[in-house]
Specification:
The protein is mainly α. The chain has 16 helices and no strands.
């Protein structure tokens, strides 16, 4: 799940804008480093803040997130368990700790933690989604589907819930339902290129190339540094006979890749062959226009 740092109840940017002499605290700097995935510096500052101001659930939770994202799972467990001492019913900590246990192969304890989180958090979708993901990984697709449905009913504006419901539909090859769920997720969070990409991928499977191309363009506008998006979009454009645009996207992808890709080169060769055939067909049509049969003469002619 999205392990967002727990922050203090004020906006750093607003404070900085309202007071020229404002200087962010170590805690605020640590949160910024965490958001930037600079975990080493985030850990250092969170621990300094803890020593100076005392330990809290928030500090322990954020340290758990840092260590979890570093895949230092034993340390993550220590800090999440310390956080739960301050509030044993904190659903976000329970869910994250469950994810760590899954990574450690401790499925039984993970399931217990997720069921507790679902019991304690009755307003938000994310514990239900986490539990659904657990069952999906276990291959219990029907059980996962029930939980995704409950999650979207509980929090209908949760892009997180709709996105994961879409992955469930897609895995079961229900591409129409998956495309709709991905588009719902993208509508609720139009900053997420992965939701647009998922919709595009499913529309392509349905041969709805216009919708697929539109969603790939949205994804590219949000993640222009990802060569795979240009390549997938080019494949759709080839199906649409938009060959010049496909070639343009493939050249962009080639420029973004750190090394030569033979499959990409093969795609470019194919596009230029198709372009040559298209141009030859157009030239032949110009050279040999269809003859118009003469109009029949009138009866009295």
């Amino acid at each position: 799940m999205n392990k967002v740092a727990l922050i203090l109840g004020f906006l750093v940017a607003a404070l900085a804008g309202g007071c020229a002499s404002y200087s962010p605290t170590k805690f605020e700097k640590a949160v910024k480093y965490l958001d930037e995935r600079d975990y080493t510096r985030a850990i250092e500052l969170f621990k300094e803040w803890r020593e100076a101001r005392g330990e809290t659930l928030t500090i322990c939770y954020n340290l758990g997130v840092c260590y979890q994202d570093l895949a230092q799972y034993d340390e993550a467990v220590v800090w999440y368990e310390r956080a739960l001492k301050y509030n044993p019913r904190d659903a976000r900590t329970l869910v994250n700790l469950a994810m760590v246990h899954i990574a450690q192969g401790r499925d039984v304890s993970a399931l217990s933690l997720l069921e507790r989180a679902v019991t304690y958090e009755t307003d938000r979708a994310y514990p239900l989604v986490a539990l659904a993901l657990f069952y999906q990984r276990q291959g219990q697709m029907a059980k996962a589907g029930e939980l995704y449905k409950k999650a979207t009913e509980r929090e209908s504006k949760s892009a997180y819930a709709w996105f994961h419901m879409a992955t469930w539909h897609e895995r079961d090859q229900r591409f129409g339902d998956a495309a709709q769920a991905y588009e719902k997720a993208a509508e609720l969070d139009d900053t997420d290129p992965v939701a647009f990409e998922g919709a595009a991928r499913c529309f392509a499977r349905l041969r709805n190339y216009s919708a697929a191309s539109r969603n790939y363009d949205f994804a590219i506008s949000l993640a222009p540094e990802r060569p795979s998006l240009y390549i997938e979009a080019a494949d759709v454009m080839i199906e649409q006979k938009r060959l010049e645009r496909a070639a343009q996207y493939l050249w962009i992808a080639r420029g973004l890749l750190p090394h030569e890709d033979t499959q990409l080169s093969d795609r470019l060769v194919k596009v230029y062959q198709l372009l040559a055939e298209q141009e030859q067909a157009a030239a032949d049509a110009r050279a040999n226009p269809p003859t118009v049969p003469p109009k029949p003469s009138g009866a009295g002619g």
